[in-house]
Amino acid sequence: MKKILIVLEVILIFISANLFAQKSFSKGKLVKERSGFFIESIVKPYSKDSVDVTFLFRIDNSRLRFSQELITESKQEVLVAYPNIEIEIKDSEGIIRKRLPWEQKSTMLIGAKTNNSLTFGVLSSRLKKDNYEAKFILRDKTTFLQKKKISIDAKVDDNIVSNIPIFAQQFENSPNTYSPIISNGNIQFEAKNVKAFFYAKNMDGWKFSINSIEEKNYPTMWEKELSLEGDVNYVNYPPDFIIGGENKENQIRYSIDSKEHDYKIYSLNIPALSIRPQHYQLHCFSPAGDTISYEYEVVWETQPESLYDMDYATEIMYYILDDDAYSKMNSGNDEDKMKKLLAYWKTQDNTPETPYIEAMTEYFRRADYSKNEYSTVRHKDGAYTPRGQICILYGIPDHIEDTIADEKVLEIWKYDALNMTFTFEVPKPGEYVLMKID
User: Fold this and answer.
1) How far is 275 from 299, CA to CA, in rounded Å?
2) Residues 425 and 408 sit within 8 Å (Cβ to Cβ)
3) Among the four 153, 265, 338, 380, which has the fewest Cβ within 10 Å?
4) What is the pLDDT of residues 136-156, one digit of tens each?
5) Range list of β-strands (E), 249-359
């Protein structure tokens, strides 16, 4: 018999996933160490012998060192950091051709439920047609944080400007507005309505194929073999690019329209089925036999920590499965458990047309949060505690109140949208017992 105080239908995971998706989480606690600094380069034709190279930056604010400052005008205290990047560009002969500075003030509100967790930046430079290597040094004020190098394909052949596509995802309510995907030349797993853009003189009649690249020891829940084909299409109206997401306060607009009128913009749709964590090869080919190829990866940057350990992931499923279903899921090797876990969540998926499962991600994201947030000296893993269980099932509470009633120390959780209250008794430090649900 399960030792659990409530039985919750999985549908509540979907409801509360939407209700609490905007809660602030500490990325340092949620995911394994990742770079936190991402770069894309866009090569746009300018003239017969030169190109405009634009660098797009995405910095995870958890990498920055925020300090408290007072805004004089509003008399409001905020958290502020000062990221800056030094860029050194070398040509194909190793000669330094450009040194470029970039800096920005990043601000986060203190105590807000939603914070801007990312800093975005854009910087452009005109270069002669050639292949380049660019070195980026990221600092916060004078403190060194990270160094990266990327190759820039800007030599430009007779037809195609660059073999490296511009990946971008379409805004849901704006058919000609796109957000470029800044992920070191890759596609993020969470991305939707993705297109790849190319500059070319003529790609009329071209087709493309996307094939998965099989790799040994590459762990994935998804089927490994994939082969898809489609058409490359001429873009009649150059799309608007917006960096920084749909929050207008953070948006940076960028035009991909070219001043060199010999070149047009072409695009291809990346099928939703091909956006699942794995390595791929994009192959474009013309009726005359001309080809270009590009290898990339679909990366799950925010994969919950819990999903790296299948034993742990299946144990956490105990809260929403009956005994028989839990026993079946918890049997077999890691690959068996992966397949059964994914199969279960696919039956609960409200976007079955895409491999990304929002409810599964939210469930294990809460497990990660609970593991750290509700751990005590007596219970090292907070996901196994009563508070952790409620957080996993319902999300982070809107209000937490500490009080004393009838000589008992209580912690009260309230959920506004769900109209529910959970009361925990604290009989001794580090021990929480769920006493009442209203």
Assistant:
1) 9
2) yes
3) 380
4) 999 999 999 999 999 998 888
5) 252-255, 264-269, 278-285, 291-299
Is the Cβ–Cβ distance between 52 and 124 less than 8 Å? Answer: yes
- Side by side, which strands form the sheet with 143-154? 96-103, 83-90, 130-140, 143-154
Confidence of residue 16 (pLDDT cuts 50, 70, 90): very low
pLDDT digits (tens, 9 = 90+) for 368-427: 999 999 998 888 999 999 999 999 999 999 999 999 998 899 999 999 999 999 999 999
What is residue 403's three-state secondary structure?
Answer: strand
371 and 31 Cβ atoms separated by less than 8 Å:
no
For 144, counting Cβ atoms within 10 Å of its Cβ (0-12 exposed, 13-18 middle, 19+ buried), the class is exposed
- H or E segment to which residue 370 belongs: helix 358-373
Distance of CA 405 to the CA centre of its chain: 44
Average pLDDT over every residue of 252-263: 79
DSSP H or E stretch at residue 97? strand 96-103
Contact between 368 and 352 under an 8 Å Cβ cutoff? The reply is no
Instruction: Please give the domain boundaries of the chain with CATH numbers for all domains.
Output: 11-19+303-437 (no CATH), 36-155 (2.60.40.10)
| Contact (Cβ atoms closer than 8 angstroms) between residue 121 and residue 85 | yes
| Burial class of residue 245 (count of CB atoms within 10 Å of its CB; 0-12, 13-18, 19+) | middle
What is the reported pLDDT for 6? 38
Radius of gyration (C-alpha) of the chain in whole angstroms: 25
Across the range 262-278, mean pLDDT stands at: 88
User: Residue type at 34?
Assistant: R
Nearest to 127 by CA among 57, 185, 198, 49: 49
- From CA 195, how far away is CA 295, in angstroms rounded? 15
Residue type, 100: L
CA distance 301 to 361: 12
To the question of pTM greater than 0.85 for the whole model, the response is: no
pLDDT, tens digit (0-9, with 9 covering 90-100), for 300-353: 988 899 999 999 999 999 999 999 999 999 999 888 898 899 999 999 998 888
Residues in the chain: 438
Closest alpha carbon to 64 in 77, 87, 85, 83: 83
Tell me the mean pLDDT in the region 121-129. Answer: 94
Burial state string for 188-197 with b = 16 or more CB within 10 A and e = fewer than 16: bbbbebbbbb
CA distances from 331 to 28, 170, 275, 313, 339 (A): 31, 41, 29, 12, 11
Q: Count the neighbouring beta carbons within 10 Å of the beta carbon of residue 316.
A: 25
Number of Cβ within 10 Å of residue 432's Cβ equals: 23
